[in-house]
Design brief:
Layout (H helix, E strand, L loop, with lengths): L33 H10 L7 E5 L6 E5 L24 H12 L3 E9 L3 H11 L5 E5 L7 H12 L4 E7 L2 H9 L4 E3 L4 H7 L3
Parallel strand pairs: 2-3, 2-5, 3-4, 5-6
Antiparallel strand pairs: 1-4
């Protein structure tokens, strides 16, 4: 389990209309442009089961998947996202994301945040230098648990990448991820919250 303030070196390391760029072809910009993001949103092209997704590019056959809240960023309550672009970074996990990127893996963010917060989430990534190849979010129009959304996200991510491992704080998400045969590195800092909150 990854604790705050530590960095663990891990060695050995759809939305049918949003077709990713061919393998090896880089994006013209380091992150999703707001124009492209909202064009997808306005056209209603992003709905699929419990998830919404924005694929910017696929540059590697392998990826590492990161959760957002209480994982990449510090947000233990899992509530109130109107200012989520201002959440502080969880520095050890952000450094881990940068490290796997340097080792040639695509970064994919998979979060149970509602898709209404996509613009703020992308702004946060730009602020802290996290460069995801894709962003998966929970579909706000569908009532589902966070772990159900993570399961659907995982299945779709595997259409484009081989998942090397997944980093998440929720024990409910971790069980779903492990049940799919993907190794989950779980952040344990938020265990007290999950013990009282449950899988919602």
């Amino acid at each position: 389990m990854l604790k705050s303030g530590t960095i663990v070196l891990l060695v050995g390391l759809g939305l049918e209309a949003t077709i990713p760029r061919p393998l090896g072809q880089s994006s013209n910009c380091p992150l999703f442009s707001p124009e492209a993001l909202w064009r997808l949103y306005d056209q209603g092209m992003k709905r699929q089961k419990t998830i919404s997704k924005y694929i910017d590019r696929v540059t590697s056959p392998k990826c590492v998947v990161f959760d957002m809240d209480a994982t990449l960023c510090v947000h233990e309550s899992q509530m109130g996202f109107w200012d989520c672009d201002k959440f502080p970074q969880n520095k050890p996990v952000v450094e881990l994301a940068r490290m796997v990127k340097r080792h040639g893996y695509d970064i994919v963010i998979a979060t149970a945040r509602g898709d209404r917060w996509a613009k703020q989430t992308i702004a946060w990534c730009k602020k802290y230098g996290v460069d995801p190849a894709a962003l998966y979010m929970k579909n706000n129009d569908v009532k589902s648990t966070g772990s159900a959304a993570k399961g659907d996200q995982l299945v779709d991510i595997e259409r484009f990448w081989n998942i090397e491992f997944w980093v998440d704080d929720s024990p409910f998400n971790a069980k779903v991820i492990e049940d799919h045969g993907v190794h989950c590195v779980r952040i344990s800092d938020n265990d007290e919250f999950w013990a009282g909150y449950g899988d919602k």
